[in-house]
Amino acid sequence: MNNIPKIKLGVVAVSRDCFPESLSVGRRAALVAAYEKKYGKGDIYECPVCIVESELHMQAALKDVLANGCNALAVYLGNFGPEIAETMLAKEFSKYGEVMFLAAAEEDIPTLASNRGDAYCGMLNASYNLGLRGVRAYIPQNPVGDAGECADMLHEFLSIARAAYALKHLKIISFGPRPNNFLACNAPIARLYSLGVEIEENSELDLFESFNKHEGDKRIPRVVEDMTKELESGNNKPEILPRLAQYELTLLDWIEEHKGSREFVALAGKCWPAFQTQFKCVPCYVNSRLTGAGIPAACEVDIYGALSEYLGQAISGDMVTLLDINNTVPKDLYKKEIEGKFPYSLFDTFMGFHCGNTCSKKLIKPQMKNQLIMARSLPEEVTQGTLEGDIIPGDITFFRLQSTADGALSAYVAQGEVLPVPTHSFGSIGVFAIPEMARFYRHVLIQKRFPHHGAVAFGRHGRQLFELFKYIGIPAEEIGYNRAKGDRYPTENPFDR
Asked: Is 427's pLDDT higher than 80?
């Protein structure tokens, strides 16, 4: 997928000088062999220059991994490790990319006699010294393992590093203030800067001027043709496609002209109330196409929604969407389609909805329509351009990163699924099931004052997102999740039935 970084992970082994260097050499080779057998070549680079025992070794290893294009680093304790040199290496490399630490477990009984590595102990000192130096490094949930287990740790870190690295090279481009009565989508900028994200806020009038300048653009027929192929039998509004193509080209040109020094881009755009009457369409379908192409485009100027979408894309390597945590599932629909067929209570279910911004590849029989809600108060002809359909069933991760009203970072992650149940409704919509959703809704979403928009990654990516949020500095206790039955939230009434 375009618009996300390609991570090359350098593996540098370290050794304490009173331990046999051969331990780290052999264990590094076994680790790389296990990784390549399981995941193939290309993602990692084995630093052959030296086993790091000293500050001079550290400098040589740093020079080598940077020269070989590494933008992430795995410091591998083949034995106890040199706590000074290895954490100096992490500090120096962190200027260029993301860093993790992991360590070797003892292989077998004979190893214990004379070739014991004691990396289990060395990881403690490494962590302590990282704290002394103020260095942020990723340490896996179980950071000590055999070659195969450590290979899995390297592979998981690739997606975490991809998202964290992207933050420092990302620009979010927004258009227009939030619609009235949408203060929930506020976006305190200071926390974006602290994450390394650049933000460019523009007036919707600037966008409208650029849109008008694209009238008659020679590229419009080509984009219309591409839209027609994508929509196939769902092309119910062919007359609106040229206008939507004009808008899409406006945004793509704006990105190229405004991304500046940043490599990656996400968008947050205005979509009502005046958008329809001036642009003579709605932007939903264009937002869906851009998101499907790897440029998350959040509606309603939801800047942290766009950021969340982008992180989900970087973690999953797949397109994402942004939905309202919207409405309950009627009891008659639950009884007809869900009860007895799926292991969820009525209160585990809800409908996730947005007007039409989900990519066609994630919808069942997508149809181009007009925006029903907006058409209640506007002429129908200016509300054309939504992409509607039920969201494809399967595993999902619902999540959001947000700056709170008092300027702190907070987040939530919940795993569940979209059920193969017809919604009987409009928009891009699905019947979602998340275990213990009612409690999560009350004691995380409401209690911690999250807005109604949530990002959706397709697949189970909760583990990586939770680790990412910790890695970028959110205290674990500030990361909400859907707790299992019997695991009470701090605000949950212990006398509740």
From this structure: yes
